[in-house]
Amino acid sequence: MNYRSIVVTRRGGIDALQVVENEMRAPTAEEVQVKILASPICQDDVAVRIGNRPFLAKPPFTPGYSILGIVDVIGEGVTGYAVGDRVAALTTFGGHAEYIYLPAEKLVAVPTGLNPAEAVTLILNYLVAYQVLHRVAKVKAGDKVLLIGASGGVGTAFLQLGKLAGLKMYGLDSASKHLVLSKYSAIPIDYRSQDFVQVLRKSEPAGLDFVFNGMGEETFERGRAVLKKGGVFIHYGGPQSLGRFVWLLVKFIFYGLFPNGKKMEGYGTHRLGIELFKEDWTTLFSLLGEGKIKPVIAAKFPLLEAAKGYEMLESGQVTGNVVLVAPELL
């Protein structure tokens, strides 16, 4: 029996994606075979195909940073999961496929009543936003914050979780995305026609408590300029090359040596560990089940039509998440 997956055959554009067949195998000890129901397309999936990230896997590889699916076969020694259970995982690679093999320890149980296309967005995008807000920044109600890049998958997670936390939010994005920012009570700023430093110095002369940056490093200086003394700039976007990674480290060291009364922190997925991931995923599943958050799904595509999803995401016009799903969920 075979299964199909999306494979990046070389660095480059969407035409580097191909559908290939793979031979099924039995899961090894402590491993689980999962039938994938949903896997989002994220910016890191695009970046690793193009090649603008440090420490890249070499083609050919299957992209897909996170998955939600059903336990199909369990390997020897696996406990805590049974065939038919719904599970999810942060995979980094391998998610854009019909099946995936994962160590059982990487899985988290998913409540059966949740919509798979919505719930799978919690595994990366909402995890990033939740951990930046509550484990790095430790925000409290009334804090004033700026979201740089506020309408994508992570940005809309920040909007919803920030509103839930009682934050006063400003969102930096293009005018076409302002409606969604306003929906979640964020005050929109158009980066094309407005100088956000001038806007915020007028609106918040005492300065902001936090700036959350998911875009490029070019916003560092101006983002720090709108912070109050004691404020924190938190960068969570991935560097676009090994050179940019080194430059980022140098900048963090520089700001650490010369803080000017303001802090600079970074967040990277995988830094806090799987146990905290599972704890926070459980919290996020509860928020979704209670209707307190509602992931924005821009579009769903069949898993094997990933190229259409990439084309949409890379257009730059997406608000929220693009999710690949098994055919039975369309």
What structural class is derived from the secondary structure elements? alpha/beta
Largest sheet: 7 strands, mixed
Sequence of secondary-structure elements: EEEHEEEEHHEHEHEHEHEHEHEHE
Q: Tell me the span between the first and last alpha carbons.
A: 24 Å
Strand content: 25-35%
Could you please say which CATH topology of the largest domain applies here? Answer: Quinone Oxidoreductase, Chain A, domain 1
Under CATH at level 1, the class of the largest domain stands as: Alpha Beta
Write out the CATH superfamily name of the largest domain: Medium-chain alcohol dehydrogenases, catalytic domain
Task: List the total number of helices.
Answer: 10
Average pLDDT, all residues? 93
* Count of separate structural domains: 2
CATH architecture of the largest domain: Alpha-Beta Complex
| Helix-residue proportion | 25-40%
Tally of strands: 15
Report the C-alpha radius of gyration, rounded: 20 Å
From the spread of the alpha carbons, the general shape counts as globular
Q: Which regions have little confidence, pLDDT < 50, spanning 5+ residues?
A: none
Describe this structure in words.
The chain is an alpha/beta fold and 330 residues long. It has 10 helices and 15 strands. The model has no long low-confidence stretch (mean pLDDT 93). Helix 10 (306-313) links the parallel strand 14 (297-302) and strand 15 (321-325). The longest helix has 16 residues, at 242-257. The chain folds into 2 domains: 2-122 and 296-329, Quinone Oxidoreductase, Chain A, domain 1 (Alpha-Beta Complex); 125-266, NAD(P)-binding Rossmann-like Domain (Rossmann fold), CATH 3.40.50.720. The strands form 3 sheets. Strands 3, 4, 5, 6, 7, 14 and 15 form a 7-stranded mixed sheet that branches. A 6-stranded parallel sheet has the order 10-9-8-11-12-13, sandwiched between helices. A two-stranded antiparallel sheet has the order 1-2.
